[in-house]
Amino acid sequence: MKRRFSMLICACTASLLVACGGGSNSGDSADDGDSTAPPADVTDRYEGSWLTACQQDYDAGENPAFPDGKSQLSGVVLRKLSPTTMSFNLTINEYETPDCTGTRTAAFFSRGDVVFNGQKSATRRTTDRAEFRTTTGTAANVRDILWTDGNVLYRGLSGTEGADGFLSELYLNRPWNRI
């Protein structure tokens, strides 16, 4: 789960904006109120550059190869192609420190398109269903949900897939900030 974003980049870990999983908001999801048509302005609210805060990939002592811990910083650029389609360019930088400082030790890149496919109620919010289709790296289609509160973007929580194949809960502990 901690590698959802890396899987999204590697699997596209393309989940665009996938990040480490973990935790859950059990009891917060609702599947009623889904629609098949995205709103006309769906891509307008997501267009731009987004960055996560530094996240620990390994805690101190968790992995002998990184005794002090390891961290990850992720960014994505979303560009509108049509009212329901965007391009994405995802970058994940890894550091052998617990606070994203020092020399970057690895970088993962993924590109592709995001196709919006209606809305879904999740974690008491109306989210947008988004399918990330990678064009570079490992070919993958990843179904996710997105929701923005102005300058903060949230993705779905790994492991909460609903019957429609899209995630059913938002990962509120890993926001992306507009830069």
Overview of this protein structure:
With 179 residues, the chain is mostly beta strands. It has one domain. Helix content is 4%, strand content 43%. It has an 8-stranded antiparallel barrel. The protein is globular and about 50 Å long. The two termini are 26 Å apart. The N terminus is likely disordered.
Outline of the structure:
The protein is mainly beta.
Q: What is the count of helical runs?
A: 1
Q: Sheet bearing the most strands, described?
A: 8 strands, antiparallel, barrel
Given as residue ranges, the uncertain stretches (5+ residues, pLDDT < 50) are 1-32
Taken in chain order, the helices and strands follow as: HEEEEEEEEE
Number of domains: 1
Rg: 16 Å
Please list the strands of the largest sheet in the order they lie side by side. Answer: 1-3-4-5-6-7-8-9
Query: Which structural class is indicated by helix and strand composition?
Result: mainly beta
Mean pLDDT: 80
Task: Name the shape in a single word.
Answer: globular
**Ends distance:** 26 Å
Q: How many β-strand runs?
A: 9
Portion of residues within helices: under 10%
What share of residues are in beta strands? 35-45%
SSE diagram, text form:
Blueprint lengths: L3 H7 L37 E5 L2 E4 L11 E13 L2 E11 L8 E19 L2 E10 L6 E8 L3 E4 L20 E3 L1
Antiparallel strand pairs: 1-3, 1-9, 2-3, 3-4, 4-5, 5-6, 6-7, 7-8, 8-9
